[in-house]
Specification:
Helix content: 25-40%
Strand order of the largest sheet: 2-4-3-5-6
Structural class: alpha/beta
Distance between the termini: 56 Å
Number of strands: 12
Mean pLDDT: 89
Largest sheet: 5 strands, mixed
Length: about 300
């Protein structure tokens, strides 16, 4: 069942201030007028993108089989604000929507390249702009396996649909066609949209360093690398009194981590997180000149009395 579209910008804002019964109430709503736009704090979502002049009116979405060369970057800099890749029809599209509506200067999106089979993120973006979402948050008529937007509100979708025009170059991989489209858009530049929009569903939590370290009853690990060997990662498992219990060797961090868990050698979440981080660092060092040195876990070791309490 389609969700009714909003006819005016004010209707979008009213919807945010009084969400539908099945939508969360946002933690914070920020309207961004063009004269208040802070280019230093945009884009607001992470992703695989390259920035040009962020007050330019065009964003380019890269699909499969296309990439931008250094020679082509100069052509893009004249009219493009951002160029970024899109790989999924749900979380990827959500990030695109949130970034675009937070910049009122972007009025056009060009989608360029071959759509990936199964996900069809380019098609999802086109259909989102054309039809919106239904009452189950599914992009209407989208072809992808799961084009469901769980983390943006209906009002954000409607803001996106009002702010930008989609230019569909799906299936086109030649840069000439993209360049021609960008020249066309530059001659017909639109004024900035009435306001950008940033919706925070939750307050961001600032991470803090651990203050106390509780030893894992299952023991501790020493991680070592042996470059050039068939199994270049080696992990020694010790009981907390320092007695060697196991030796695990492997080709990569993922297989080592899986083995440690399957053997039941890790019993605390913080210890598992620490091991994952260190094994990843060790694996990266194998393909670089950086020598791996195992980092100590954060926090001061708790005394036995503290653990009992």
């Amino acid at each position: 069942m389609p969700v009714p579209a909003f006819n005016t910008f004010n209707e979008v804002i009213d919807s945010l201030e009084a969400p539908r019964w099945d939508e969360p109430t946002p933690f914070k709503i920020t309207l961004i007028r063009p004269n208040e736009f802070d280019s230093e704090n945009w884009p607001i979502q992470p992703g695989d993108f390259q920035l040009f002049t962020v007050r330019n009116p065009v964003a380019v979405i890269l699909l499969q089989d296309v990439q931008i060369s250094q020679l082509q970057e100069a052509a893009l800099s004249h009219s493009v604000a951002i160029v970024g890749s899109l790989n999924t029809e749900n979380l990827g599209v959500e990030h695109v929507v949130k970034n675009i509506i937070a910049n009122p200067f972007i009025r056009n999106i060009v989608i360029w390249g071959n759509d990936s089979k199964g996900h069809f993120p380019g098609d999802a973006t086109v259909k989102l702009a054309a039809h919106g979402i239904n009452n189950k948050q599914k992009i209407i008529a989208a072809r992808g396996a799961r084009p469901i937007l769980k983390n943006i509100l209906h009002a954000e979708v409607e803001h996106f649909r009002k702010q930008v025009t989609i230019h569909d170059l799906i299936g086109v991989v030649g840069f000439t066609e993209l360049d021609n489209k960008l020249r066309q858009l530059k001659h017909g530049e639109k004024q900035p949209y009435e306001a950008g929009l940033k919706v925070d569903l939750f307050e961001a939590i600032k991470a803090e360093r651990a203050r106390r370290l509780r030893l894992d009853p299952s023991g501790f690990f020493v991680i070592m690398t042996m470059k050039g060997k068939h199994y270049p990662l080696l992990v020694e498992h010790y009981s907390n009194d320092g007695s060697l219990q196991h030796i695990i060797k492997g080709e990569d961090a993922a297989s080592i981590s899986s083995t440690l868990i399957n053997m039941g050698l890790v019993s605390q979440l913080d210890h598992a997180a620490y091991l994952g981080r260190e094994l990843a660092r060790a694996e990266v060092s194998l393909d670089s000149d950086i020598k791996y040195v195992q980092d100590k876990a954060q926090g001061e070791i708790q005394s036995q009395a503290e653990i009992i309490d």
